[in-house]
Design brief:
This protein is an alpha/beta fold. It is built from 10 helices and 7 strands. A 5-stranded parallel sheet has the order 1-7-6-2-3, with helices on both faces. It has a two-stranded antiparallel ribbon with strand order 4-5. β6, α10 and β7 form a beta-alpha-beta unit. It is globular and about 50 Å long.
Length: 241
């Protein structure tokens, strides 16, 4: 405890977004919190996208994208809309070695996905191809999965899925191109297959755009005979962003 106090004296905690001093570690200052687009109202039950209006108790709202594209998973949640300060946080986590953002996101993910996590749920991150993992040195989705597991008490299985071949970047690709590129690109780790059978799986990723990556993961898990697949992402790209 004395060491922690000493460290805070020398290195006081800073806002994750702007660097202003805050009262606790892994937090946003009040102005940044107010400007960060958390999804708190009505949202799509399949992908978590923010929707206009208010959600009625027990009603499952579905966005236009999820009506047009059948999702292989059962339900989905998202924490943030991908723009403004949320985009800055996601890019910091993905490309800026900002593991502290994943640490902060654990409680956010746990709140957003509370109804998807049951006692036997296993939390599984979207995998990176080994070449990209070597260059980046970490998988941001795995960091999010581990952070969520610490908060929720559920099991994280970071090597449940594998990406055995490299795929082109999806940036700038059309929706149908994204799904074509990722078709069959993800598989279940044979060493983990038996441990997944009959269990609910919560897939974790940093950002959902078209849903092609999550769909490829979900199909691989369904083929491995899991009970149900759910998804949760830190941020959801909407048509307006």
């Amino acid at each position: 405890m004395r060491m922690q106090i000493a460290l805070r004296t020398v290195f006081p905690p800073e806002c994750l977004s702007c660097g202003a001093l805050v009262d606790q570690e892994f937090a946003l200052c009040a102005p940044c919190w107010a400007e960060t687009p958390f999804i708190l109202g009505a949202s799509c039950d399949h992908c978590g996208a923010a929707l206009p209006g208010q959600a009625e108790p027990g009603a499952a709202l579905i966005c236009d994208d999820c009506r047009a594209i059948p999702r292989p998973w059962a339900r989905g949640r998202a924490v943030l809309e991908y723009h403004g300060k949320a985009r800055k946080l996601v890019l910091g986590l993905k490309h800026g070695d900002r593991a502290d953002i994943a640490r902060a996101a654990g409680p956010w993910l746990a709140r957003a996905g509370a109804d998807l996590i049951k006692p036997d749920t296993v939390i599984v991150p979207v995998p990176l191809y080994r070449g990209r993992l070597w260059r980046r040195r970490y998988n941001q989705s795995a960091l999010l999965a581990q952070s969520l597991a610490r908060v929720s008490g559920a099991e994280a299985m970071v090597d449940a899925l594998a990406r055995p071949r490299a795929t082109p970047s999806l940036d700038g690709k059309r929706r149908d191109e994204r799904f074509e590129i990722l078709d069959g690109a993800i598989e279940v780790n044979a060493k983990r297959a038996l441990a997944l059978v009959g269990r609910d799986v919560l897939l974790v990723d940093d950002v959902m755009t078209s849903g092609a990556t999550l769909a490829a993961c979900a199909r691989a898990l369904i083929a491995a005979q899991v009970a149900n697949v759910f998804v949760i992402v830190l941020a959801r790209v909407s048509k307006s962003t």
